[in-house]
Specification:
The chain has seven helices and five strands; from the N terminus they run ααβαβααβαββα. With 187 residues, it is α/β, with parallel strands linked by helices. It has a five-stranded parallel beta sheet with strand order 2-1-3-4-5. It starts with a helix and ends with a helix.
C-alpha cells in the first residue's frame, strides 16, 4: 500500500511540473474546442479501465465538469454493446473501434484513443481509421508513448505502471475538459 501511494504521488508530482505535458494538454484542448465550435464531436475509446475512463470523459463533456453549461458533443465508443459484439464477431476485436470511427467520425472531429501500453491493436487501428477520415488524432498513453500509429497529439504520462497511468489520464482529461468548458461556455 505504501509503495503504491508513493509511486502515485511521485508520478503526480512529476506530471505537475512537466511543461511538455502541460503544452500537450493545452494543445489538445484547443483542438477539441475548435472541433466542437465547428459542430464536430469528440470520440473516445479505450480498453478495460481505459474504457471506463472513455465513458467518464464523455460524461464530463456531455453533462458538466466545473459548472452548469450547455452539453458538449462527446461519445464513448465503448458503450454500444450491440455494435461492439457485432463488429468483434464479424471483423475481430482489433476493429471494434475503427469501424465505429468510420461510421460516426467526420472530418474535423477529434478521436482520443486511451492505451496505457501504447500498443493496443484496436486503438492503433482506430487512430489509423481516424487519420484516414480526416479526424484529429490524439492518444493518452504511458511513458512509452504510442507504438505504431501516427498521432497528431500524444500525452505520454510519466509512469509505466497501469494503475498510476490511469490516474494521470483522468487528471489530464479533467484538465482538458475544464479548458474546453471555459473556452466554449464561459460563465
Amino acid at each position: 500500500m505504501t509503495d503504491y501511494l508513493r509511486q502515485s504521488a511521485e508520478a503526480m508530482a512529476a506530471f505537475a511540473v512537466d511543461e511538455a505535458s502541460q503544452a500537450v494538454m493545452i494543445g489538445l484542448a484547443v483542438k477539441i474546442t475548435g472541433a466542437l465550435a465547428g459542430g464536430g464531436r469528440l470520440l473516445i475509446a479505450g480498453n478495460g479501465g481505459s474504457a471506463a475512463d472513455a465513458q467518464h470523459i464523455a460524461g464530463e463533456f456531455t453533462a458538466r465538469l466545473m459548472y452548469d453549461r450547455r452539453p458538449l458533443s462527446a461519445i464513448a465508443l465503448t458503450t454500444d454493446t450491440s455494435s461492439l459484439t457485432a463488429i468483434g464477431n464479424d471483423y475481430g476485436f482489433a476493429d471494434i473501434f475503427s469501424r465505429q470511427v468510420m461510421a460516426l467520425g467526420r472530418e474535423g472531429d477529434v478521436f482520443l484513443g486511451i492505451t496505457t501500453s501504447g500498443r493496443s491493436p484496436n486503438i492503433l487501428r482506430a487512430l489509423e481509421a481516424a487519420r484516414e477520415a480526416g479526424l484529429i488524432t490524439a492518444a493518452f498513453t504511458g511513458h512509452a508513448g504510442i507504438q505504431g500509429a501516427p498521432c497528431d497529439v500524444t500525452l505520454a504520462v510519466p509512469s509505466g505502471w497501469t494503475p498510476v497511468i490511469q490516474q494521470l489520464h483522468i487528471t489530464a482529461a479533467h484538465i482538458v475538459c475544464g479548458l474546453v468548458e471555459r473556452a466554449l461556455c464561459p460563465r
